[in-house]
Structure formats: C-alpha cells, structure tokens
Design brief:
Largest sheet: 9 strands, mixed
Structural class: alpha/beta
Protein name: Diaminopimelate decarboxylase
Oligomer: single chain
Organism: Flavobacterium frigidarium
Helix content: 25-40%
Radius of gyration: 23 Å
Shape: globular
Catalytic activity: meso-2,6-diaminopimelate + H(+) = L-lysine + CO2
Distance between the termini: 60 Å
GO molecular function: diaminopimelate decarboxylase activity
Number of domains: 2
Number of helices: 12
Strand content: 15-25%
CATH superfamily of the largest domain: Alanine racemase
Cofactor: pyridoxal 5'-phosphate
Number of strands: 18
Length: 405
Amino acid sequence: MQSKDLLQLAEQFGSPLYVYDAEKIKSQYNRLTKAFSKVEKLRINYAMKALSNVAILELLRDMGSGLDTVSIQEVLLGLHAGYSPEKIFYTPNGVSLEEIEEVNAMGVQINIDNLSILEQFGAKHPNVPVCIRINPHVMAGGNTNISVGHIDSKFGISIHQLPHLVRIVENTKMNIVGIHMHTGSDILDIEVFLYAAEILFDAARNFKNLEFLDFGSGFKVPYKKDDIETDIEELGKKLSKRFNAFCTEYGKELTLIFEPGKFLVSEAGQFLVKVNVIKQTTSTVFAGIDSGFNHLIRPMLYGSQHHIENISNPKGKERFYSVVGYICETDTFANNRRIPEIKEGDILSFRNAGAYCYSMASNYNSRYKPAEVLWFEGQGHLIRAHETFEDLIKNQISLPLPAKV
C-alpha cells in the first residue's frame, strides 16, 4: 500500500479515515506461527480488543486464528463473525458471576482471574472446564497503564495465593484445564518473559488435567525508525524448547496459546487526516487537523508516539510542527516534530494506527467516528461507514416537555 493509494482512499472515502492493510496482518500472523513451528500444538487467539471490526475478525478467522475476548459483547461479536464457541477464549476482569455463567452457556472457554468468583463458579459448576489466570508478579510494559503482571495489578490471582487457589479447586472438585498469564504490553526483554514462563510452569505442576498453557502476549512492535521490538524469533526458539521439555516432564502434549492483539494489527493500520489550518504563533507552528483525541487517544493516554508522514508532500523540506487536533482541550499528537513542509489541505498519515485507535474512539465533542477501510488484494474495501448525525442521536430520547405556545 503506497502513498498514492492512501491519497486515493482519502479522496474516495473522506477524512479522517482508518486504513488497514490485510497483507501486513497476514504476515504478522505467519511470522508468529513460524517462530513457534517447533511446538506441536500451537494456537493463536487474536486479542480482539485491539481492533474489533467484524471484517478483521473474519480475515483472521480464515487464517485459523481463535479469539481472545474480555467481555460478553466481544464474545457475541466473535460468534457473529463466524467463530465457533470452542475457538473463543473469554478472560474478563471484575465482571459478575452472572456474565461469566451466561458466556459459559454459549460453550466458550472461560478464564477466571479472582478467588471469589472461582470458588462461587466451582461450587455451582464443578464439571465445567475452567482456565485460571495467574498474576506472576513480573513487570512488563512500557507504561504503567499497560503493565498488568506487577504486584499491585488488579489482574489475575497472585502467585502467592496459589495454596489458597489449590484448596478451592480441591474442595469444589473443579475441572482445571488451563493456566494463563499476561505480564503486560510492550515486552522489551524476552528474558523477563521467560522468567515469568517458569513461574507459570511451576504453577501448572499443581494441576493434573491441563490441556493448555496460555502465555498471553504483549509483544512490542516498532513505532518509529530503528525502534526496538520484541525479538519474536529468539523468543520462539527459547520458549519452544522450554515448553516442549515441560510437556515431556508433565507427561502430556499440551497446547501453547498466545493472544496477540497489537502485534497482529498495529503496523497494519494508518490513520489519515486532513490539515485544516497552519497557525504560526510567536514560538510554534501548529498544523491543525480534522481529528483529535476522540479518534486517536493513545498519545494523550499512554504518551505513545505515532510516526506522522505528510503523504501529500513526502519529499518536501522538513520543518518543525506541532500537530494538534480540534478538541476543546489540550489535544497534541506531536510537539515540534520534523515533518516535510505541511500546507493547508495536505493529508497526513499516522502510522501504527491499527491497535487501540478506533476501538478507543469516542463521540467526545459530539464528533462523528470515522470510517474504516481494509486494503485487501489491491483494493480498498469500506468495512465501516462514517457516522452521521442520525447515528449520534439514534439512542437518545427527548423529554416529553409540553409544546411552547
């Protein structure tokens, strides 16, 4: 997908616009499966919270992927996209027992991450196959908001509570078929991940009927030129060897599960915006665009950096710009960033916009959500229409006020 293709899509579908490259999604999926080709039973469950458009789910379904879901609504979307229940994995946090039971009735694999719900569910449904989410107390992630394996995390059952966990399982006679962990996003050091894996192996020895071990994900992707990323190939080599050895020790060929989200879709996505105004102040040149953090909140929420290209003038002389949105508060995507000269009407592309961009978009300031396009087999396919005023008000109900005379 080249700049001329993106410019054509912006003209055809308008801006702002999310564009996803199907070939990049496929190549990332194949890269991961190849890295773990030495494991006999490997399963990839796409973490759909990253990007939940049904067309994306269908694309990954046809590649053989399962789904990692965190809400009953995501489960319903997965079923709607054609996934069979046994291909869907449900890992909620802080939800009610009623929601877990409702999902269980759909035939989906459930993953429980707290002792209270585990004991309640086990007492009522001892024969249901259950996975348990462990918190290994291993810190991973480039930002505290996306690091979920540390000791103060609300996610998972503390590894230090393992004796209590085992007692609940023994008392309820629960059917534990899997152990799960997720340390957090943006794994920089695979040795830290391998250390957490050893904690999972130790926990797994307490359960005799396991069918799988789920190692979560959190693989880091590059956000700029020469940026560091998780070495998937090295991780594949080392973890595959260790996993296979554990299976031999355990006496059973277990399934190795990963649940990548960002790794599969982040680099596939670009967010196209139009420059509304160039505003020069005494110290700064602002490029004001036709979007804001209502469409891409990650820079404000996580401090993430998205590479910005001027695809209308890619070879122009570089100048320093602060790229800002149209929201009525601080809404800055880049401060004094070197970008080829920008003029009003130019189209800018934000890279790495496939994960947690549309899925975290909102109607803040009563702005519409943009359209989504999938670049598939050399063509742009509209996979979600741009919102309209009717979409904005369709679920709103007016007060029955008396008519004015």
